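Discussion board: Methods & Data

I've been asked by a reviewer to show the raw model output for two of the constructs in my manuscript, not just the figures. I'm not sure how much to include, so I'm pasting the format here to get opinions. Each protein appears as its amino acid sequence followed by a line of discrete structure tokens. Is this the kind of thing reviewers expect to see in a supplement, or should I convert it first? Here is construct A:
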Amino acid sequence: MPSVANEEPELPQADFLGTRFGLTPAEARLVALLFAGGSLRSSAEALGVKYETVRGHLKSVFQKTRTRRQAELVVTVFQALSEPNGGAEVAHSRRSRTRA
């Protein structure tokens, strides 16, 4: 019987998130797990990496998504996944606010 622990979690939105926000595959998988309600510790375990590794990924994700907290990141991802245009307007308005 194959071990479930060794299988990579199936995260269909990870590809979209990687493309949408310019995330690495590892960062996109982390964001997908956090979006699904996982904690950093449970995400590290699911991905088979150390807690410090996911913390580093999260810091990079915050920069790329222009967010500062996990809750803000989840809202940003929700908006991107919910909008018919892939969230392009959200990204544009977020960039506009940071430039002003």
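Construct B, same format:
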Amino acid sequence: MNGRNSKSPSSDLGVKHLNITITGKVQGVGFRETTKIVANQMMVNGFVRNEKDGSVYIEAEAEDLFLEEFVNWCHEGPDRSRVENVSVSEGEVKNYRNFEVFKK
């Protein structure tokens, strides 16, 4: 805090950007569509896409509390999925306006 007042509304809200890679049985099980529904419910913006290696990649932005819940959900995934690993790293906030499913 360094004794300074924060002037940016997004920093006041604690908006963070996460890069999430999910491995396991996560393609062909409705993972991307379910992720969009969950993200919209949790007020998370960003996108989800399938990767060539069989994983799912997500960029997610929201307040800390919502991101924590979202990542918890990523460990479960939709009913037909079998999540083996969730890798999460912080990135630069890109100010996404909504959550999209990218289809290749």
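Answer (T.O., handling editor elsewhere):
This is acceptable in a supplement if you add a one-line summary per construct. For B, something like: The helical segments are 9-13, 31-41, 64-76.
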